[in-house]
Design goal:
- This protein is mainly α.
- It folds into two domains: 199 residues; 196 residues.
- Helices cover 66% and strands 1% of the residues.
- The protein has a two-stranded antiparallel ribbon.
- α2 runs parallel beside α8, α5 runs antiparallel to α6 and α14 packs antiparallel against α16.
- The radius of gyration is 28 Å and the shape is globular.
- Belongs to the major facilitator superfamily. Feline leukemia virus subgroup C receptor (TC 2.A.1.28.1) family.
- Keywords: Cell membrane, Endoplasmic reticulum, Membrane, Mitochondrion, Receptor, Transmembrane, Transmembrane helix, Transport.
Length: 549
């Protein structure tokens, strides 16, 4: 018997394997039991004794027919039937194409935190007008509806630009999209500095539209970054951190503008205060763009999870983009999630846009506290998002967690609706915080649940469709609730949202938990059964079937 020395992990053993196979092209791979210390539950290969002059050829124990040894399907069955290990125990390729090694990169935290920061900057610019709606109405001499459109333009531009940007994400990758998004965010912030006079409202609209285009390059990335850079037990937490930045930006957008821009009548002094806010955000956006250029990379050297490695293999550059969309809309569970997610996120967008107006109606002169209530909603939601992400990574109970959070969102919204007009601001702070914990905490849950339901389809496409739904419902709810508030008051407007959140709960209950990505990260039951049988007996080894290869 010709055996490879267990101590030879490098080049010394590799040629003998190759030559043995070349001399015996008809070798049939057989499972055998080996005493090599590196062997786990996966058996090594041996050659059939009857097919060669060599009684038996034992191959390196790290090579296995089982998918868990290498997530790249193409490496499981080469023309020669085996894969030759590298000389150093490391992948033979230095690029991300080497999918035989599953390893997370140390850079992953820098990437997700940097993305979170420029997402925060963009989200701040979304809400900075709405959080002091009455002050900008006075400065520019426009209606409340015109100021509302500065927030709604974010929702409007996203809808037609989703598909082009999602295509660009698939075509050019994460780095290009990150550079484009942060550059547009920076440009929009500097354009707004040209709108510091009352008659220059169109300039501030232009700057806001540029920032809204940047948002299209940002919103669909959290789940993609999590999948590309993070391991199987980190993806939900990473997605929560990525969404965390957007929520933090909204929170700062509620808190800072009322402090920096006081409600004063002198427009010259008001312009000075507005300029301070615009200069600060432009400087931050510029710094973040520079950091993205330096730090943000396309993808790690090695795939961080087996599911991601398989997705690299399954991805086809010639795949039809339209066919991917059609497949997603044929997935009933995903369609239900699109609608339920849109109802929840749309209600959140409407509440955020109209919060200042609702609070001022019941508590005149409380612009600063209106911003603090918004801050409370978002901060509570960020804790909810992070806790939900950690919970999902530990339990993988996507359907159950999503449903519970949705139900609690509805409960929180009902309580907030009936306590807003009681005349006690401290009560509003508590009820708004409880509602925000679940309402904004739901957002990353939706992203991760969508990836599970649609794997191996593009994360950018599934996230993008969720966001399109959110933007559509956000526009509808903001306009409708605004009109209801102006005509009938805040309570009917909030009841309007409660009705649609109830519909969202019902739709979520009908979603079936088809967790495809989790299945890809696990070994199949057939493989586990095969391993158990082989561990019990190896008296009569049989040829490995083509299905296993």
């Amino acid at each position: 018997m010709v055996n490879e020395d267990p101590s030879h992990e490098g080049l010394d053993g590799a040629p003998s394997q190759t030559s043995a196979l070349q001399e015996n092209p008809n070798l049939a791979a057989q499972p055998s039991v080996s005493g090599h210390p590196s062997i786990s539950a996966h058996p090594s290969f041996s050659a059939h004794a009857s097919t060669s002059a060599h009684p038996s050829v034992s191959i390196h124990p790290s090579v296995s027919v089982y998918p868990s040894s290498s997530a790249h399907p193409s490496t499981l069955a080469q023309p020669s039937g085996l894969v030759q290990p590298s000389s150093s125990g490391q992948p033979s390729s230095s690029g991300p194409e080497d999918l035989s090694v599953i390893k997370v990169s140390k850079r992953r935290w820098a990437v997700v935190l940097l993305f979170s920061c420029y997402s925060m900057c963009n989200a701040f610019q979304w809400i900075q007008y709405g959080s002091i709606n009455n002050i900008f109405m006075n400065f520019y001499g426009v209606s409340a509806f015109a100021i509302d459109w500065l927030s709604m333009c974010y929702m409007l531009t996203y809808i037609p630009l989703l598909l082009p940007v999602a295509w660009l994400l698939e075509k050019f990758g994460l780095r290009t999209i990150a550079l484009t998004g942060s550059a547009l965010n920076c440009l929009g912030a500097w354009v707004k500095l040209g709108s510091l006079k009352p008659h220059l409202f169109p300039v501030t609209v232009l700057g806001q539209v540029i920032c809204s285009v940047a948002q299209v390059f940002i919103l669909g990335m959290p789940s993609r970054i999590a999948s590309v850079w993070f391991g199987a037990n980190e993806v939900s937490t990473a997605c929560s951190i990525a969404v965390f930045g957007n929520q933090l930006g909204i929170a700062i957008g509620f808190l800072v503008p009322p402090v920096l821009v006081p409600n004063i009548k002198d427009k010259a002094e008001l312009a000075y205060h507005i300029s301070i806010m615009f200069y600060i955000i432009a400087g931050v956006a510029t710094l973040l763009f520079i950091l993205v250029v330096i730090v943000f990379k396309e993808k790690p050297k090695h795939a961080p999870s087996r599911a991601q490695s398989l997705s690299y293999t399954l991805a086809s550059p010639d795949a039809s983009y339209l066919s991917s969309i059609i497949r997603l809309f044929k997935n009933l569970n995903f369609v239900l999630l699109i609608i339920s997610y849109g109802l929840n996120a749309g209600a959140f967008y409407s509440l955020s846009t109209l919060l200042n107006r609702m609070v001022i109606l019941h508590y005149p002169g409380e612009e600063v506290n209106a911003g603090r209530i918004g801050l409370t909603i978002i901060i509570a939601g960020m804790f909810g998002a992070v806790i939900s992400g950690i919970w999902l990574d530990r339990t993988k109970t996507y359907k159950e967690t999503t449903l519970v959070v949705y139900v609690m969102t509805l409960v929180g919204m009902v309580v907030y609706t009936f306590t807003l007009n009681l005349g006690y601001l401290w009560v509003v702070f508590i009820t708004a915080g409880a509602m925000g914990f679940f309402m904004t905490g739901y957002l990353p849950l939706g992203f991760e649940f969508a990836v599970e339901l649609t794997y191996p389809e593009s994360e950018g496409m599934s996230s993008g469709l969720l966001n399109v739904s959110a933007q559509i419902f956000g526009i509808i709810f903001t306009i409708s609730q605004g009109q209801i508030i102006d005509t009938y008051g805040t309570m009917p407007g909030n009841i309007f949202l409660c009705v649609f959140l109830t519909l969202g709960v019902a739709l979520t209950a009908f979603i079936r938990a088809d967790l495809r990505r989790q299945k890809a990260n696990k070994e199949t039951p057939e493989n586990k059964l095969q391993e158990e049988e082989e561990s019990k007996t190896s008296k009569a080894p049989t040829p490995v079937s083509e299905e296993h290869l």
